[in-house]
Fold this sequence. Notes:
The structure holds two protein chains of two kinds. Helix content of chain A is 73%, strand content 8%. By secondary structure, chain A is of the alpha/beta class. Among the domains of chain A are: 1-130 and 963-1039, P-loop containing nucleotide triphosphate hydrolases (Rossmann fold, 3-Layer(aba) Sandwich); 171-219 and 846-890; 223-282 and 760-842, no CATH class; 441-556. Chain B is elongated.
Amino acid sequence: MRIHSLSLTDFGCWQNLSLGNLSGHINVLHGPNEAGKSTLMHFLRGMFYGHYPFASQVLAEEGSQEKNPPVGILGVETATGKYRVERTFSLGARPVLSTGGVSVESLVADESQETEGQGASATTLQVLLSGVDAAMYQNVFAFGLDEMEAIGVLGQTEAGDYLYDLSAGVDRVSLARVFRSLNSERDALLDSTGEGEIARLLEEQGALQAKRDEVAEELGRYRSLISERGRLEGKLQQLDSSAEEEKTRAAICDLAAALRPSWEKMQEASASREALGVIPEVTEAQFLALEELDTQENFLREQSRSIEERIAEAAETLRALPLREAMLRDGPEIEALLAQRPWIASRAQNIDRFSGEQSSSQRQARAESLELGVQVQEALPRLRNDARALKEARAVIRAAEAAARDHPLPVAEQEDEDAAAQLQAVEERAADLKRRIQLEQRLLQLSDTRQDLELQFEGLLQRKVLSVRVLLVSGSLFSLGVMLACSGLFLLSVATWGGILLTLTGIGGSVAGGWLKRMLQRAEDREWDAAERQRELLASQQQQAEADCQQIDQRLDDGRGPYAVQLREAEKQCATLQQAVAQQRANAGSREVAEKLAAEVAEAKAAYQEARRAWQRSLHAEGLPAKLSPAAVRRLAARCREEAEVEKRNAALRAEAVAQQEELAAIGRQVEALLEKAHVAAVESHDLSVGQLLLSKIDLLAQEWSEQTALFAERKQLRGLRWGLAREHRQCRRQLKLLQQRKARTFIDLGLSASEDLQQLAQTCATARGYEAEIASRKAEMVLACGTTCEFETVVSELDGVTEDQLRQERERIAKQRKKTGEKIVELAQQRARLGEQLLSLANDRRDAYLQLELSRVEARLETATSRWRDLVCTAQLLDSIRRCYEQQRQPAALQEASVYLDQMTDGRYRRVWTRLDREMLCVDDFQGRSLPASSLSRGTREPLMLALRLALVSQFARRGIRMPLVLDDILVHFDAERARLAVTLLQEFASAGGHQIFFFTCHKHLVTLLTEMGAEVRLLPETRARTDKAASDHSQAA
Amino acid sequence: MATPIFKCIHASDLHLEQTFSGMENLPVALLDPLLDAPYLAAESIFSAALSENVDCMLLTGDILSPQEAGPRSVLFLVEQCERLAQRGIPVYWAPGGSDPPVRWQAASLLPPNVHRILGKEREIIHRLQSGREVRLLGPQENRQAIRPGDYPAVEDERISLALGYGTVRPESLGELGYHYWALGGVHLRETVAREPTVHYPGTPQGRSPQETGPRGCTLVEIDTDGLVQTSPIVTDAVRWGRYAVEVDLETTTESLYAKMRSELGRGLIDAASRPLLISWRIAGNGPLVRGLQATAAVTEWLEQLNAVDCDGAAVWHVGIEVICPAEYPEDWYAEETIRGEFLRTLKELQDDSAPTLNPVEPLPPGSVGDAVSRRIAEQSDEQTALAVKRAADLGVYLLSGEDESSSTGHPTD
């Protein structure tokens, strides 16, 4: 941007000022002090950024309300065109930066276009300023000596930052910014003075620890409380044991007082017992035992006497028994004989039966029977054949009769004879009916067909006359063909081949049309003929069918209803007749079989009669009755055989009976001998048989033997009784002897003489025992009263030798002691409870836990902060070597350029400007290579350095397309003549070579001279309002 | 395993004197739960002993440092021991590093069922109801490591348990014949060996971001054959969780937050309605990771995370650890930029060809500098290596020159 004109009204000391045709290079504005040079610089700043620095002065003046606001106009030129910037400054109480009150007007060719709206003007102005803000403009582009010094230390200004950030020109990041970021964060944690977050946290930690220690000390009382409570516990334990002892002692004394009466009675009983002296120690049990021995001895004596009497009685009874010793000796023989009695009785019975049944008539009949039997036996082989033939004939008759019963003769019916003829007639009628119905259906079909044919004929008749369409097609084709042929003939004269072709085509088309019509006509004719033939065929078929119908109708009777009904009835009748005919055929077969079987029966009967006659002849020849049947003959023969067998057996039995009779006789003799030995008289009877007599003797012997046996048993029982009584008597005597010995030993053991009075002794002992029981009872009573309180002996010691008064005094003393101990215990328990409450209170105090938690939080933060600080330091140390390399070899281009400018302005005395990237320190190398910090330079050297830096920055901005007018407000006043000359030369070169517009304000004529010599345009500033007023005032004062 | 004849609860490292640590910000709503958590966890141990009806309880060190503990801890321990005393359950206490006998003056308060076993009184014969005897042997001296020579070999058939504190080499314990080695001093539950069983139950309540996951004590059962079965009993009242999230170049703020929500959901299920304290570990590369290199970004992210309501669950996000890739792209080392120069310098440092870093050098003189110096000196080699890595990551982040605002965000965006 370049300013080519400016105009201002009521701005600071300037009431009106207009400067036009400003140079694009150096514009020197010369004026004395207070000529308004700095006001002009402020005007330019205010025009761009809206800052009016004189507002407070204006407001302080009288009548400021009526004053017009300052107005400024700039004509500027940029790469995009020319603009007119007009700003009306507000008279605010404070100098503020404002975007309001500005208008930017584009001046394109002849027409001017004002940007609409304040917002748009401000935006346009920002575009014109290329993003350079007010601070940047003040420090880099429009500055005086004050601003130059400010950047001289390169503090926390944006320009300084920018200067360092220029290192970004070689990378994506600025190493200086990285260092600044690291250092700022590290300093926030802990800076070089020991301040920062870590210090604060350490301080907080210390405070918390102190507070925690304080709380811990306060809570630490619990240890002393615990020990105090332990001490109290010990004391309480001691007192509890003492109280327990005293309680026990008091209880013993109370018990002793309560038991004193019992104790005295026990003492009296003891004295009485001692008065009885020494008493044999015979206990009650021992006395009882001695009495028991006496009782047992008497009992045994009595028992012994009783047993002796019973023994004598048994011996007497034994002697009175009527026993037969001889019979006793033959006892086994008698027993054996009696055992044979059933056998003897059986034999006697057999003998008696055989002897009674053998009469003569019986023998005669039996002989005859035997003879007949022999005859029959002999005739049986000869009769066997005839008997077999008779049996077979009878079997044949039975078989024939059974077959005849199975096939009875059927009953013949007269109606069945005509069934076949009726069936044939019905079948013929049914066939006629079926034929008639079929013909009727055929006629109906023919009629339908004929109707269809008629319709077909109508169609054919219609088609016989050709349709319009066919005629049109064929006619059109024909006509077209004729036309083409005619055309062809016409064209033959013009075009030979085309005419021929056309003619031929036309002929072909007409021929085709004719041929088509003819073909269609012929097809119709063929169809017509076929339909005609079919109609004739149908007519003949219909006539034939009608003739057949008439013929059938003649055979069928009319008036029976419809033919279909008649046909169903005929079919039913036919089925009935078919069944009847089949039954008739079956009956004929059965009748033939029955007749055949009847003939066979008759033949069998004849054969049987013949066989029977032969059998009768044979019987007669054998001398047997003719009426005997073969079965009767067999039964007779079997009976005869059985009779013979019985006779044989009877003969054997008779022989055996004789032998048995002899045996019985021998037994009878034995019985008689036994009876005689036993002196028993036998009974004699002649009516009885030998066997029965023998049996009566045996029975007598048995009766006698039975009586003797009973007597023997009684004697045996009596002997056993006597023997048992004797043994019991011996035992009784032995027990009595033992009892007497035991009694003697007891006396000896007790120290008693056999003559001592047991009853007196027992009475003395009982008295002594009474005393002892009382003593024991009293003692038990006292022991029971002692219970778990104390031992009996303890109470005895309290009673023995102690009077009642002494005991009472002891009890009173113990009660007092107990009271004292109880009070102490209560007091200590209360102390312990208080301690417990204090402990509980301390336990519920959570301040230490909260503080501990807070400390852990601070510790965690400290850990994190320390770790972060360490990370930052490590990162910075890692970057440090890179920084040194960059400081030596990769200084930003701006500083390199500034080095050139400084070298030029100091005539080679200072050759290099560079920065420390870690500390934001500007340094200068002199011609000897020494590095000096900028702050250590003299003002005369530092100001060239600052100017060089700004020129370098302006140059850097210009490289980035940012060009702003450079305003220098008398900045060379501290330069000596040589450096001023070099500086002016540098400025001239800078403006001309770089195309920078410079406004150089100065009040020094030598500088004006130098600049004039360099070819700069110098303007003398007009008189300002203040100077005019002052001149007028001076003039009036002079006047 | 056959029917156990001996059953006990084994616990250690209760550290009733310690509170939670490692949290830079304390959630006000969780202050009381955090303070009560160690006590609730310890109470759960004693309740488990009662509910399991054990034969005894084994405490193996670091139960309570009486010098550092307040009255609440001491009285709480006494009260819990009295609960067991009422049921006749003895407590066998082998002291550890923070509760050696010489420092324990409040022992007089403990009920008579508490037996501190060490030195001359280190052997105790515990008689079971069945008439069997169990032999318990404590350490000879209070050491920081288990010395097998301190424990004589078992010579009878009785069940023998050894109690100890500190580190151990399990292979040296096999020949001694003890059925169970009840050890303490390690905060993470661990069964070092199986034959014999050498076991650390760990601390019953995690107290720092490093002590993550469920914590508790161990139920020990021994059968007639001497077989040992250990069952964990979870007791922690507040659960610490550390969840890792991987990010890449494509990961956005929303997707990262979705991943964190997913991990958080799983953590809440594992925590089972306990208050959950979470440390995040975000690893990978991309703009998100680079953006989180700035402390302010991490702080802002944490604030936003803690402002989100997790359906009423008690959740507190403790911190975010950002892990950059271990290696940077090869072409970064070769490029002619400050970052390339920086990486090459870093490589030289890692190859020991460059001078080592001295983080103490720029410390200011005075007490603050000394304190920081001491803290740095106390850091381990591993922490030093991590510091170098973090410094490298920070340097690369600063020298990469990307727009920070595009890479940072917060969960509620």
